[in-house]
Amino acid sequence: MSKPNYTGIYNMVSQNNFEEYLAALDVNYALRKVVCILKPSKHIEHDVNSGEMKIKTVTTFKNFDMDFTLGQEFTEDLGPVDGRKCQTTVNWDGDKLVCVQRGEKEGRGWTHWLEGNILHLEMRAQGVTAKQVFKKAE
């Protein structure tokens, strides 16, 4: 079975439990409030043959770029959320992209999956789970 191609621009349509997730990451109150009102878009370039991916999260506050190759550990700059860095690996679990982040927060990571033109993002840290849902732009 071939893996899905995540390439596209996706606009956020909903989020759940995001402020609690940011609190679990020790993001200060004022920054949490700002980040929670943003409506980010995800700009994803995915080369299914090489496994190279570029995910750019775009907001009116700050943008966040993540370039990586599936299965290869890299140092991720967590910039717009908490200014920290961690060791990150993104790999396939079936047709889902699963990220494991090793750093100062236990159980930190995320999972992306597609259902038609809907992109799901589940984020985890310290036993707290948040979810964002994005719709692919036409």
Keywords:
mainly beta, 14% helix, Lipocalin, 3 helices, 53% strand
What does this structure look like?
The structure is a single chain. This protein is mainly beta and 138 residues long. It has one domain: Calycin beta-barrel core domain (Lipocalin), CATH 2.40.128.20. It contains three helices and ten strands, in the order E-H-H-E-E-E-E-H-E-E-E-E-E. Strands 4-3-2-1-10-9-8-7-6-5 form a ten-stranded antiparallel sheet. A hairpin with a 2-residue loop joins strand 6 and strand 7. Helix 1 runs antiparallel to helix 2. The chain starts with 7 loop residues before the first strand and ends with a strand. The mean pLDDT is 90.
Offer a concise description of the structure.
The protein is mainly beta.
Looking across the biggest beta sheet, what order are the strands in? 4-3-2-1-10-9-8-7-6-5
Instruction: Give, in order, the helices and strands.
Output: EHHEEEEHEEEEE
What name does the CATH topology carry? Lipocalin
Estimate the strand proportion.
over 45%
CATH architecture: Beta Barrel
How much is the radius of gyration in Å?
14 Å
Number of separate strands: 10
The stretches of 5 or more residues where confidence is low (pLDDT under 50) are none
By DSSP (H or I, 4+ residues per run), the number of helices equals 3
Roughly what percent helix? Answer: 10-25%
**What's the structural domain tally?**
1
> How confident is the prediction overall: mean pLDDT?
90
Distance between the termini: 26 Å
